[in-house]
Amino acid sequence: MTKTKRSVLTAVCIALCVVLPMAFHAVPNAGQIFLPMHIPVLLAGLCCGWPFGLLAGVAGPLLSSLFTGMPPLAYLPSMLCELALYGLLSGAFSSRLRSGRLVVDLYLSLIAAMLLGRVAAGLLQAALFSAGNYSLAIWAAAYFVQGLPGIVIQLLLLPPLVMALEHARLIPRRYPRRMAAATEPDSVEEQVQAETRG
User: Fold this and answer.
1) Are 17 and 58 contacting, i.e. CB atoms less than 8 angstroms apart?
2) How far apart are CA 12 and CA 18, in angstroms?
3) Which residues neighbour 53 within 8 Å (Cβ) at sequence distance 6 or greater?
4) pTM here?
5) Topology adopted by domain 3-197
6) FRET label pair with 101: which of 29, 53, 161, 176, CA 20 to 30 Å apart?
7) Residue pair 159/106 in contact by the 8 Å Cβ criterion
8) With 70 as the cut, is the pLDDT of residue 104 above it?
9) For the segment 156-172, what is each residue's pLDDT rounded down to a tens digit?
10) What residues contact residue 129 under an 8 Å CB cut-off, 6+ apart?
């Protein structure tokens, strides 16, 4: 994929970081439960690579906070770091994992990014943002229990979405289909000519 196409897709994902939370926040605490901003950031990483995933993870929450007040400024630094990690890790794993099957690559990259991102974000919370007031129980509750519906949505939605984008040729195929036969005629006319020559 060209850098221009990656930039356009990343810009769409950043815009979704602003729009999706507005739709979900009609429900109390929906941001912490459904994690709507995670979806476009992970999508940018999976489709465009780690630099663009990182950009979406930084710019998305920053612009959302600026235009909508979500997340609030008090939570912005920790959320910005968390989402930047998801975008970076999903892109890094996606670019390196090559199992031969797209769906396997997507799920492995997504799960690895979600797990390692949560571990790193928890360490940042313990060391910087909530030093002295953080525990393993708080980390598990915040990153796994409360956000479980959002985790399920990401696992169900993102791999099929990336596959659909490939099928629609909006992003390049990870594993291009091979020709059935290199010399196979492409049209009826070519078939007739081939039979005549035979």
Assistant:
1) no
2) 10
3) 41, 42, 44, 45, 46, 86, 87, 88, 89, 90, 91
4) 0.87
5) Arp2/3 complex 21 kDa subunit ARPC3 (1.10.1760)
6) 53
7) yes
8) yes
9) 999 999 999 999 999 99
10) 77, 78
